[in-house]
Amino acid sequence: MAAAAVVNQTVNNTSPVLQIMSHDTIFNKIQEVLPDCIAADEVKPFLEIFDAKVSEPIKLYVETAVRYYVMQSLSNGNDTDLSKIMAVAKLSTALTRKDVCLPTLPMLVLSDAFDSMTVQQCERLFSFVESNVAVWKEPLFFTPCKNQVLRMCNDVLRRLSRSQNTIFCGRILLFLARFFPFSERSGLNLISEFNLENITTYTSSEVEDGMEVTQGKEEGGDDEVKEISAEKEDSPVKDSKPALDHTLYTKFWALQDFFRNPIQCYQDAPWQMFTTYTNDVLEAFSSFKLEGDNSVAATADKAPQFYTDITVEMQNHDDTIVDALPDVKKIDQYFAKFLTNQRLLELQFSDSNFRRYVLVQLLILCNYLTAVIRFKLETLEEIEKCWVHSTELKVFSLMKETPPDGEQFVEIVKKILRRENLWNDWKNNGCPEIKKPVIHPLVTSNGTVNGKLEGEGAEEEKSSIAKRGKKRKLGDLVREADSRNKFVMANPEMTRLWNICPDNVQATQQKKRNFIPSLEDYFMRAIDQIHSTEEIPTADKLVNDGNFGWRGLRILACRSPHFFTHSTAPIATLPEYLTTMIKKLAKDLPAVQLKLQQQAAAAATKAKQTAKAESKPAAEEEMETQADEAAAVCEPVEDEVEEEDTTEHVELNPITEQQQEALAANIAKNDKYKILTKKLGFKDDEVDYILEQKTGNVQQCIAHFLKLWVENEGDEANQDSITYILEGLKMPEAATGVFE
């Protein structure tokens, strides 16, 4: 009893509302007051219920009572008064401003209404949500309600059909775009994903007279069986038009799969298919000329009856939608999904709007393939980029020839693509928040303030500016400077120095602060010494200098990828390691390769000139002959020297592709191939992955890793190295017959 008295006393001291009013009391009073508040469009009767500040538990009671009232109003079904729901949502907004309920109450009321009404009623109620977007973006509502708004819109979108409720779906997406800022992560496709579920179905076999079964599902529907008229077109096809046969039909609709998933264009086989189909379709478009507005009108006259029925229904349903469409019988802007029947292909080729759809799709794909996108890992080769560029020129040319207003349409499309590249750059930079620039009052020398003269209120603005200048605090100065990306320091000189380059990271990336020399500049003397034909003393070689070697290792770690490649050969000394690395660098540097080729050509020219200048007398030739005969005794020694030189030369040559294939065939017969790959510097998970890619073919897997080993090691991946490794694994028979 004493404990209960203490609890009651605590409640009485902290929350007088809870002491006086219970949940049932508040609930009943709200049910009585709400109709009066809605009728009078004011919150005063509602506020009179409470005598003190509303606590958090009381706000929950208010939320329960208001939502119950809404659900009772929604129980009438089609007879639901939408104006009452809108009035409750508006009243909830006013109560939130008075701190009587939680900020999420307006969105909860609307969510309950959307969940309980038909699609037609939801479309009418959504107009209220759209008209109050400025209210939902206020700081009081945005942060607590943004997740609820997103959930509510997604729930409504899941109920809609993309083909039957296209306009309503677009309104919801436009509302979300207006509600959320540009930097909102939930509305950004940061990693460039594609809607792979948007599949366009078409017949894979040629259409015959009679019945055709079209396998296609839309919005979870069943397979549809459509009867196609067996009557053929009486009007003959003009000679100038291409044959719209099943082959062209298949190629044309197969392009939609590339538009759906452009990533496959970076693979060899799909790329060849895409280029072939695109060239054929563009050639067909070029041959199938349109003759201005007359051709479009003719297409409208030849349209099936259901086109006309749909047009009449649209005119009776909503005149504003019809007025927004082109003035060509309003038949070609309705369907949200392509009709892929083969018998409609000629009508579609004759339709200027349909042609523009396909050409714009192709331009968007070409723009993606050549654009710089942060999360796109693949790139095209130069010859492929040239094809994309030539294709874009062909598409723009076809657009200009497509009536009506072809040239104006091309300019609009180019502007859209340029804006798309600007958005790509914005996303590549991490989607920085877009803010309006701060506009400061401008006081000029002629006495105008913000363009106003003295008699137009400029004196008042001057006095207010001076007054604000005297009373400005340090925090205000720092905040203003931060808004302009500036710094405010202790004195003007420090402020000037810090504002020379406010971005410290950018300042460190300036070219004048880059003190590290390039690989070519630092190692050029060492490369010349290694490839020099003249004998250089060992002490004078740069690779033997400890300081040069230490700095060279630091530069290699910063600039060269060869520094981090795994090598099976042990490192003996620093000069030997530097010599090996310098030889690899010389192959990668074009300037060095050019210089070495010029030196070799100059040396060869000089040798030829020397050989021509020296004319040997007959006596000298006889003496040389005798010297050669006398030197025959030394032939075994020379053979040994030549054999040593040959061995050294073979050691510097990597194994060829034929030798790699032969080794792979022999090694695949042994179960120790995984141990061999580990000796070559590859991990087991890499071997398993490549083996899976090669569909379990061990020989191809081993050949793949031998090729990688040669690319990584260069001259060190030679016959002696692989023979030594195979002997260590007790597999010497794998090299039998390979290097003969």
Automatic annotation (TrEMBL):
It comes from Hirondellea gigas. Coiled coil: none annotated. GO terms for biological process: mRNA export from nucleus; signal transduction. It comes from the Eukaryota. Residues 672-740 form the Death domain. InterPro entries: DEATH-like_dom_sf, Death_dom, THO_THOC1. Gene3D superfamilies: Death Domain, Fas (1.10.533.10). Residues 211-240 are annotated as: Disordered. Residues 226-240 have a biased composition (Basic and acidic residues). This is THO complex subunit 1-like. CDD domains: Death (cd01670). The lineage of its organism: Eukaryota, Metazoa, Ecdysozoa, Arthropoda, Crustacea. PANTHER family: HPR1, THO COMPLEX SUBUNIT 1. One of its GO terms (cellular component) is THO complex part of transcription export complex.
